[in-house]
Amino acid sequence: MSVRLVTAAADRRLLDEKGGARAMTWIMAIMLFLTVLAAALGLATLAATSVLNRQLAGRLTVQIVEPAADARAVQTEKVLAALRASPDVRQINAVDRAELSALLRPWLGADGADPELPIPAMVDVDLNNGSDAVVAKVAAIARAAAPSARIDRHESWMSPVSSFMGLVTWLAAALVALMAAATAAVVILAARASLETHRETIEVLHMLGSTDMQLARLFQRRIALDTIFGGAIGAVLAAIVVVTMGYQLAALGSDLIGGLALGVRDWAVLAMLPIAFALLATLAARFAVLGALRRIL
């Protein structure tokens, strides 16, 4: 006997449905809402980490720490000339003293603009290749031109930020995995509870010739529909929250925070989550029902 010979009304009654709003639908909506938010956080943090690493890789700051202003100016010119001649340097820029004074103003006040203040000269360097060998080579050139030169690699002092963002990405991935496990557990519990509730009906169907697989399809089809419908609701609400937060972050004007943006591929991944969870719920329902049917029938 084919399962489709069972009336549609009987099919719907196999899982709890009151007033057209099944509890499973709203449970799945909540699950997908939280999952999409966690996934969006992980994807945005991953994108920001990639942007940060690209921006910092191969960026150096050369400080000419020379107390005498004349000697400092001479060494700065030698460093600029030597680095401009290097094929490994893509761009070089001497930081204006007025900019340095503005950066020091919160700590030194008006004294930061004093021409007698021995502020180190700074040169920003962008390399064609951020490998350790190239960085060491360029640093040697700078020190040969200016013995008082100090080399600061941007990647090194921003590495704690990058590590923290990587940790947030892994935490978001763990949350998505936990939500998937929780969804499977909820489906299994709901399927087993429904089996117990409609045990007599299932026994009758079994005596009429329905197989365990046919009975399992009744449950998995119902649960799949609940998951897709509830998941779509949760995903849409989560997308609204993500877009709203994106506008708020963009308004802050921070380059680092501005990197927390989702691309087309990220949105495609988020859009696939309701479908993936529906497949997960379907498989969980099938194995739960088949296992229970083998025990009770």
Automatic annotation (TrEMBL):
- Keyword Methyltransferase annotated: no
Question: What are the UniProt keywords, alphabetically?
Answer: Membrane, Transmembrane, Transmembrane helix
Question: Entry's InterPro entries?
Answer: FtsX
What's the protein called, per UniProt? Permease
Transmembrane residues, as ranges?
A: 23-48, 167-191, 223-247, 267-293
Q: Which organism is it from?
A: Sphingomonas immobilis
- Reply yes or no: does the keyword Membrane apply: yes
